[in-house]
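Entry for FE3-S4 cluster complex. Fields follow.
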Amino acid sequence: MYQEIDLEIDLDKIDIHAEPPIEEPARQYYFMAKCRKWVKGFEQRNGHLPKSCVLNFGCQMNARDSEKLRGILREIGYIETAEDEADFVIYNTCTVRENANTRVYGRLGQLKPRKKKNPHMMIGLCGCMMQEPEVVEKLKKSYRFVDIIFGTHNIYKFAELLSTRLESERMVVDIWKDTDKIVENLPNQRKYGFKSGINIMFGCNNFCSYCIVPYVRGRERSRAPQEIIGEIKRLVADGVSEVMLLGQNVNSYGKTLNTPMTFAKLLQEIEKVDGLQRIRFMTSHPKDLSDELIEVMGNSKKICKHLHLPVQSGSTDILTKMNRRYTKEQYLSLVEKIRKAVPDISLTTDIIVGFPGETEADFEETLDVVRKVQYDSAFTFIYSKRTGTPAAVMENQVPEEVIKNRFDRLLKEVQTIAAKACAVHEGTVKEVLVEDICDHDPKMVTGRLSNNLLVHFYGGKELIGTYVDVLLKECRGFYYIGEMAEAGKAS
Ligand code: SAH
Ligand code: SF4
Ligand code: F3S
């Protein structure tokens, strides 16, 4: 685990008997100091430090938020552990599809008997699901054993909320409807030493008619470019060489800044950071993908050869009902433009099956796009009705068995095409950033190509975090088995 502390703050020097500061992040450091005092008391009473576990149920943005929570917990003095050993379990929830909510309730049910046995235990819930008023009502009524509930807008206040809970012994609930605030310079604890996600913007203004994200993440706001560059420079100084820029729609980055800036310009600034080797980003909305961005990608040495470009549906009718604001033809010509500018780019996508009113002909259009684009991989989702979104009350909801049949057909098509797309690299030597020991064979390591493909090859843990040229020997559908090649041979 890699702790990033952005400010040189010594928690032990903070006077916790004084009034808490009003400004952020000083206020949160004050509450971290208070919590740390409690942690020391816990250690004296119990003979060990309290243990915590933050579990993540959502997308990469949620994952980055979890790193912020872990960073704060570590500053306070908690030791990180597995869920079944933790005195403090936090679920950072997602609500993009109904099954995400179901999973959380299921796991909460399992925590209840554990909490009964262990009076020290605390349970925290945060993230997107908590932004839904009916969820919080249900928790308050039927899940009284939960200790802290907060949302996506006030995650920076975690130390303050924890401190309140430790003093009051009562359920603490704090949910904000929205915010225009971005609090910088709080601790962070990232999983890998050599790569990191970085928020470049928060929220979403697109209101795709099926999607709950704009309601639970609030309005779009961009971080100031100097904050982003500053964070990247600190990360690089700390050993990071690959960054993933995160936002629901990175292509509209900078529109709401006092001095507006395009995403393409931001990328050019980031490219200048010495020591940074790879830049990734997600997610790109097709309607906002500019010619300027395509040009920057084409000329860049550091931007990875991978673009995640969610299409959602291939039918212009359905795209209109989804409020995606592009047609099938516009999407296809965009793909053509990108392929021309960056010939070896890998394209991936998200597709929803069974949006209200989707006919067999609409679905055929989706299959047609999949065949035309030849995606390197695609995430396929069954449409899930989200209360409060316009699509939830649309007529002609598609019957379950029809959706299931389409979903299976789509998956088969996507997998066949992806295997073919993956296989084209067989026999070439490519640069790989080694990420981990291979899950299936401890004598092998796993790394990623610039185009995001995974490769397993024989090697030891000393390679983790380094760039290695690897011969791609055998394609196994969506990953490669490779062999270390002579340095400098990569194409
Ligand atoms: N901001 C990103 C996507 C965030 S959600 C974008 O616009 O591309 C990730 C994916 O979940 C979406 O691309 C979509 O395919 C899927 N999704 C969102 N809402 C959904 C719903 N109600 N049912 C099924 N899939 C959904
Ligand atoms: Fe949801 Fe659309 Fe925003 Fe993506 S762009 S988060 S799909 S509303
Ligand atoms: Fe889920 Fe929230 Fe991400 S709803 S997909 S965790 S923004």
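NOTE: The CA atoms of residues 286 and 309 lie 6 Å apart.
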